[in-house]
Amino acid sequence: MTAAPLFHLAFPVDDLSKARRFYGDLLGCEEGRSSDEWVDFNFGGHQIVAHLAPDETGHRSINQVDGDAVPVRHFGLILSMEEWQSLADKLTAHGTQFIIEPHIRFKGQVGEQATMFFLDPCGNALEFKAFGTRDQIFAK
């Protein structure tokens, strides 16, 4: 059996030192290679790369999802419920300003999930979510 593919995402930031503090120090992502224009992070076993591109940062559009104004451009991880709650508690204690507060979405429906949205210091939107069981991730 072959290993599941890993995902790679490159995204814009306006300050690499802010990205290092946020992704490395706050979220605990191990730093990989870097240059004066980009830095790699281990994002739950996946590779994300913060590229210095100040004119491209931030999110601009939203869509409604179960009553929440969800930023169209966002990324994140699906965690276990315990990991999700631990991160929500850590971010709350850190004073993180949430775009969408930690809560349960689609309550009582197929695909019920815990979710939270917040911005990195460069304006990129992140979502961290959790499901009761992994089979709910793609359930219809």
TrEMBL record:
Coiled-coil zones: none
Domain of life: Bacteria
Domain annotation VOC: ranges: 5-131
InterPro entries tied to this protein: Glyas_Bleomycin-R_OHBP_Dase, Glyas_Fos-R_dOase_dom, VOC_core
Pfam families, alphabetized: Glyoxalase
Entry-linked PANTHER family: PTHR39434, VOC DOMAIN-CONTAINING PROTEIN
Official protein name in the record: VOC domain-containing protein
Species of the source: Pararobbsia alpina
